[in-house]
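Hey, resending since the last one bounced:
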Amino acid sequence: MNLEPLRVVIAHCRYQQRGGEDAVVDAETQLLQQHGHQVRRLLRDNYEIEGANRAAVALQTLWSERTRREAQQLLQDFRPHVIHVHNTFPLLSPALYWAAARAGVPVVQTLHNFRLLCAQAMLLKQGKVCEKCIGHLPWRGVLGKCYRDSTLQSAVMVSGLALHRVLGTYQKKVTRYIALNEFCRGKFIDGGLPPERIVVKPNFVDIPAQESQMRKGGLFVGRLSSEKGTDILLAALSRLPDAHVDVIGTGPEQAKLEGRAGVRLLGWQEPNAVYARMRRAAYLVMPSLWYENFPRTLVEAFACGLPVIASRLGSMAELIDDRRTGLLFEAGSATDLARCIAWAEAHPEQLRQWGENARFEYKTKFTPEQNYRELTQIYQEVMDAHSY
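The structure tokens again:
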């Protein structure tokens, strides 16, 4: 698509621990700039919360007058064609949508997590998928202290959702939502978002092809936390004395993995070092216990020609073609994961073919070029719709 240069505002509240959403924001900003579009960013950083008055932060979560003023001035000076929002929680707040509506600028919102449906944002409770609040105001999240195990903080989250549902913010002030896959789109429709306003566009990674190397063993890349299925991985490896998995990442579950048979902890690694490991491994393991809106690590593995063994859950079951680009196992089952790892260790040639299939999947769906076409098409559609 050949477009005249656009003016785009990217809005995002950065996380205290940099993660996939922050990487996506940076990647999409660079992608637009590389194609000649003008980009301004409206950013806040969650480090600002440290030492701040809790009551003031709670009020900002509901409505940030600072955001309204700053956005109003930016939109007036820059006169963007579109504003693309990634995360407003907690410091930007939904006041941003109202500022955009007042300025007559269409809003695109990427749905990186389930925060509009769930106080905890992951549809996860005590290590299991929880959908009790889908289609309802998530008041159960207050009773269950779902956000940071705090009744008060959970109440703030739910109050914000309630306020802006009553005001019609999510129904009327967002021109187009971007879900990262069809599975997530369905959950947001079930949760009450207008289906005609939700399109699907995955994220992308930019990893060039390299010569394949001798591949051996498994690899885990991610935060070492319970929802990522670290306990399941350990239990599976305890059944497989000859298998080993390199583990890249840090997190609260790290101590559990230290010194365990079959596990080699490598800590945090720079992206290029991760990709180098992906090109040497025979398979990636993703035993996540939650839906994983769009696991960037999975697509990075595909780009490196690495098949993936993952939970048959949420987007992972959609992104992985079982027995063509990887293997799917019953979520939460160490026995089933052990079966898949044992099969993978015994069939290296089959895995190599699946790795080639995975690389082809990446080249057809998850490259910067493909993503640029899809992203600018969405921008053009919302601009056309807003002109009437």
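The mean pLDDT is 94.

Sorry for the duplicate.
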